[in-house]
Design brief:
single chain, mainly alpha, Four Helix Bundle (Hemerythrin (Met), subunit A), 6 helices
């Protein structure tokens, strides 16, 4: 048998193998683990510098009203996208697509409101103020960048012609991108707790 015939036979055998539909899901899991490690380092820096008052000015704690509104938006978007995932499994692709674009709309609202929050904080807390201001803006901006990436990924999946696992989209793009979006929402819960709620509680305890 010639080498050409052998190569063709190999290609036929490879095409006959079952497609690993969880490959993209596992790859996204590895990406999320890496990003979570980066956020963990940022949180660790936040607490490490917070123990050194020479580099950590006695700031007023950030206002929380925007943070909780943003949290409600992200949690709501995750619930909508989760519902869309169930529709994909049931074959309701139109409903799933609508849920995805609704999530995109909510994500855009999140980004716009966060811009207003930055403008509000900038009057008393800027990245160049001190270590606290630098890390506060670094962590929230880093998260905002992840939201933008998530919106781009959702938009890409939103224009795919098919969501079915076996026809046109074998690697479960909807569920894979949804996993990333849920991770972004999960991190915001930590940000609200560590950068907003705890400083406000400590501020009240110290009479700020």
């Amino acid at each position: 048998m010639s080498s050409v015939a052998q190569a063709r036979g190999q290609q036929v055998r490879l095409r006959a193998l079952p497609i690993d539909q969880r490959r993209g899901f596992h790859a996204m899991g590895c990406l999320i683990a890496t990003e979570f490690a980066l956020f963990t380092c940022l949180f660790a820096s936040y607490f490490f510098l917070g123990t050194n008052k020479d580099r950590w000015a006695n700031e007023m704690p950030p206002h929380m009203h925007y943070a909780f509104i943003l949290l409600a938006i992200l949690l709501g978007s995750s619930a909508v996208l989760r519902w869309g995932e169930r529709q994909v499994r049931r074959g309701g692709f139109l409903a799933a697509r609508l849920a995805l674009w609704a999530t995109v709309a909510m994500g855009i609202v999140f980004v716009v409101l966060q811009c207003f929050e930055y403008l509000s904080h900038w009057k008393t807390l800027a990245p160049y103020s001190d270590s606290y201001g630098a890390l506060f803006h670094a962590i929230t901006t880093f998260h905002a960048a992840h939201v933008v990436v998530g919106l781009l990924l959702l938009g890409y999946v939103g224009v795919l012609p098919r969501y079915a696992d076996s026809a046109g989209s074998p690697h479960r793009p909807y569920q894979t991108v949804a996993l990333y979006w849920h991770f972004v929402d999960f991190v915001w819960i930590f940000i609200v707790a560590l950068l907003y709620v705890i400083p406000n509680i400590l501020g009240h305890m110290h009479g700020h």
